[in-house]
Write a structure and sequence with these properties.
The protein has one domain. The protein is 69% helix and 0% strand. Helix 1 crosses helix 2. The longest helix has 19 residues.
């Protein structure tokens, strides 16, 4: 059986259905037996879904609840690319 670290190494490919059948089965088996990785996968999928919603209304102003430091850091990172 895979360790949690090994599962983590394959998780993105597993979720994208981009693994050979035997690796896919090993990941599936690990997730069926590991509560922590089930939680990790759910949170990862939730994060991806939430990230995609960030682009739902790109012309909308940033909500007041977003800290100014976070906005500045995101803009600085964008400008450094």
């Amino acid at each position: 059986m895979l360790t949690c670290k090994e599962f983590d190494d394959f998780m993105v490919d597993y979720l994208d259905d981009d693994l050979p059948a035997w690796q896919k089965f090993m990941c599936w088996l690990h997730v069926k037996m590991c509560r922590e990785c089930v939680h990790f996968v759910r949170e990862y999928q939730r994060t991806i879904a939430l990230g995609k919603t960030a682009y739902d209304a790109p012309d909308e102003p940033v909500p007041d609840s977003v800290p100014e430091e976070l906005i500045k850091a995101a803009l600085a990172h964008r400008d450094n690319k």
